[in-house]
Amino acid sequence: MVPVTDNFPSWLDDDGGSATRDMRPGARAATSSTTDGGGTSRRRRKKKGRNRTVLALVIVGILLGLIALLVLFALQGRTAVVEMRAAMPLVSELRQEALGGQTDAASSTAVDLREHTSAARDAVAGPHWAVAARLPWAGPNVEAVRTATVVVDDLAADALPDLVAATDIVAPARLAPQDGRIDLAPFTEVAPRVVAANDAVLAGRDRLDSVDSNELVGLLGDQIDNLKGQVGELAGLTATASRAVQLIPPMLGADESRDYIFMVQNNAEPRATGGLTGAFLLVRADDGAIELVEQRSAGEVGYFGDGAVELTETEVALFGTQLARFPGNVTATPDFPRSAEIIRAMWSEGVGGEVDGVLSLDPVALGELLEATGPIGLDEDELGALGVSSEMFEGDAQLNADNAADIMLNGVYRYIEDTGAQDEFFEVAAAEIFSAVMDGEAAPAATVAALVQAADEGRMFVWSAHEDEQELLSGTSLSGELRGDDGRGAPVVGVYVNDLSEAKIAYYQRMEVEIEAKQCHANGNQDLTVTVTLASDVPDDAPDLPPSVVGAGRIVEEGDMRSNLLVYAPTGGRITDVRDPNADEVGAFPQVHDQQVVVGRRVSLSPGDSVITQFDITTGPGFTEDAVLRTTPGPGGERYISTALTCRQ
């Protein structure tokens, strides 16, 4: 038989090709290797070629896409970096302008800042950046940039404009009393905006702090740390502003009248937070109007033989029972809130009536206020009745910024013999300065600057008997509380002096404190050496000075001085060694005061003597900043100085 060619369409074949079959019964189908075999092979080769071409085009497309994406990343990243570099100095500039009351300049800076931060934020806002933030190695760096731009842009858009507006409303001129009154309405008006701005800044600061700069490439890590520092400084400003607008209205009697004890510390007879408290003024605040109600000396407040409050065993060991018995000794403890509680109890028992708080200044701070008020003339007839000699003023009978501290700390005791008259002059001088400030005679900006300086130097403290207000004050320089860390990662070392001479001879005392970081460990522990030098600069005519200055010879020889030196270790720390390079034995005694290790040493000085005491201290772990030194402020004139050699030097 003749073979029949299968003419069915080839697409019906299982293998997709054509075949020739033998149609006879039983015959086996055979696939021809010659019939159209070459065409099928060529088609297969063409198909594979097309597949390779498509694959190549896909690969090229992917590569081009990646290159384009990398270019886009580079361009947008460069934009973000440029804009953030331009924005970062403006954060610090804005802070300085706000502090300086330069409202117009601050508003302009805020606008410029917003332009830069908005551009930076837009540059890194796409979904491709979100994907990149999840990549290994590059991810933390990308996320850090995105976090920084979002934080700063949010602050520039919302918090900082409110802060600038608040600065305008509560400018220094509004803080100055006029005719004995401070207008409280602006503070009440701006309070919600300032509190909200502070909350936003704190949230931004916390978000930045969550970025670990150690995981970032070097330059970026440095920039993030720089930004953290600037936002941290800004947070300090907004926190202060927030506290101020929440505290000033109620404490100045916006809701009800308030009574306060205003006490003046006398640094010529040092106590831990300043000096002997010899003058007490009762002031009343009612809807911003502030008046002087009453003046008393320490003796007129009373003597409390059984103690106005119950002292702890540690307080008795460190400060003696005099802390609770004599009003002049309440500041022997370096914890000002405790001093305030004691004097409040004394006032209630000895004078009568409950007060709402306690304020404290020293003559050095009062003298700085005279920079704002100008000289204050004193009534010569009144001075004559007190037995005041014209020698005390070396000219007109007036107090000014140059002579106030020296007259109140030394002159009054050299030129007024009667101790009662000395107290009265001290009270009169403090009251005259207070009245000059409250009557509106002072330049507003200078007044605020003087008070800020006083707080920074530890010469001004405020305590409120109202718990919510005291909670806001806690942790600030105004609080003066005993603490071993500053709440921001820095250990606090305390060095305090309590005079034991029962005289005003310590006006001539010099104290130099040096704190040196010997070793700083990875876990935050710091090994410190604190060197304290106490010296006597008593003049050659000491034997001719009156007993008020040199003492009556009962406690020490006339012209000598005796002090109790107290050094406190930071939180969780310990004092490992105490030594005197010039003595075999130191005679130091350790205690634990409010969970802080403290060592005391009694130091006696004759004219011209100096005594050095060195303390080796190891702090607790977890500290990230250099040690901070808090000391008794001293009588001014650079008589008490301090230096620090820190971990970062």
Write a concise synopsis of the structure shown.
The protein has helices at residues 37-99, 103-123, 127-132, 138-169, 172-175, 185-209, 218-251, 298-301, 313-319, 322-325, 336-350, 363-373, 380-385, 404-415, 419-438, 444-456, 467-473, 547-550; strands at residues 258-271, 274-286, 289-297, 357-361, 376-377, 398-399, 460-464, 492-499, 509-520, 526-536, 561-568, 574-579, 589-593, 596-605, 610-618, 628-631, 640-645. It has 649 residues and is α+β, with helices and mostly antiparallel strands.
Could you characterize the architecture of this molecule?
With 649 residues, this protein is of the alpha+beta class. The chain folds into three domains: 75-251, Methane Monooxygenase Hydroxylase, Chain G, domain 1 (Up-down Bundle), CATH 1.20.58; 258-456, Aminopeptidase (3-Layer(aba) Sandwich), CATH 3.40.630; 483-645, Sandwich (Immunoglobulin-like), CATH 2.60.40. Helices cover 44% and strands 20% of the residues. The protein contains 18 helices and 17 strands. The chain has helices spanning 37-99, 103-123, 127-132, 138-169, 172-175, 185-209, 218-251, 298-301, 313-319, 322-325, 336-350, 363-373, 380-385, 404-415, 419-438, 444-456, 467-473, 547-550; strands at residues 258-271, 274-286, 289-297, 357-361, 376-377, 398-399, 460-464, 492-499, 509-520, 526-536, 561-568, 574-579, 589-593, 596-605, 610-618, 628-631, 640-645. Strands 3-2-1-4-7 form a five-stranded mixed beta sheet, sandwiched between helices. A five-stranded mixed beta sheet has the order 13-14-11-8-16, with helices on one face. Strand 9 (509-520) and strand 10 (526-536) form a beta hairpin. Helix 1 (37-99) runs antiparallel to helix 2 (103-123), helix 6 packs antiparallel against helix 7 and helix 12 (363-373) crosses helix 15 (419-438). Mean pLDDT is 84; it is low at 1-35 and 64-75.
